[in-house]
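for the record, two folds in this file. i put them one after another cuz i was lazy. first one right below, seq on top, structure tokens after. the second one comes after a little note so u can tell where it starts
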Amino acid sequence: MELVVARIGRAHGLRGEVALDLRTDDPETRLAVGTTLATQPPAAGPLTVTRVRLHQDRWLVTFAEAADRTAAEALRGVELVVEADASDEEDAWYPHELQGLRVELTDGTVVGELVALEHLPAQDALLVAEKLPDGTTVRTLVPFVRAIVPVVDVAGGRVVLDPPGGLLARDADAVVVDLPEPGGTDGADADGDTDTDDAGGADGER
């Protein structure tokens, strides 16, 4: 089974260096100098690591097969993959071990199927194909933390969720929204105008 180690991002500099979006907890081993990695799509590789360095918390790698910026840019979006068996670490799973698992609630109610493990900037999340009572299916991201996903039973073919109200699409009616008191001025000036920047326009940055 192929395990994605990293996805190649944009080129860095003029000498073929690329930034990586890591998908492994052991980049020192997986990306060691001299390592040859298969790729997805296969036609883009294999790629041999010739240089590795950290720059502003980003992993930058140079491959023997990409000697300049043009060649590096052509690799953008390519995935680096290795053959991997099931993980033998406690509380650690490869994405391919989780895909297709049945998703249940703590009371045994079947929610749907686990589609993928997503590596988000803040934390990992499970992408769940949630089947709603009306028969439709929606995809829901569930934070992959123990408080919400207390059980991962690969051998039993299931994961168990204990979601807070409103996390799942089926529980949308359970969301509690705090509304301002009637006549209140929260988020507005006394004349009813919402706050803006000094130039008089809304600030588009978050």
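(here's the note) second protein begins now
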Amino acid sequence: MKKGGKVGSKPHEQLEAWRKSMELVEEIYRMTSNFPAQEQYGLVSQMRRAAVSIPSNLAEGAARDGNREFARFLSIARGSLSELDTQCQIAMRLGYFKQGQGQAEILLERVGKLVSGLHKKVKETE
């Protein structure tokens, strides 16, 4: 269930959800580099931490034995996605970026669908 392509030799590198979440991390870092300096230790730090948590949990879960453990790490990744989505909405409300600016919104949605689909499949095979 964990395998999803022939990209890398490591289990997580074969997951499209992991690859797209890595793109999301890059986009969040690019996007937050333009935030006001006073947000460096606030929203910027929180957004980057939440973004990094997504592929990190996918990687850790893919390396674990058994689908039950993998499902747990997928749930954590989903939580981080929700956290990041909320933080992006806060940043938009504060005027740090506009809706449709950058790829973050598209990647958030795509990664969310991939992680949710993977979670559903893994739960079915527990």
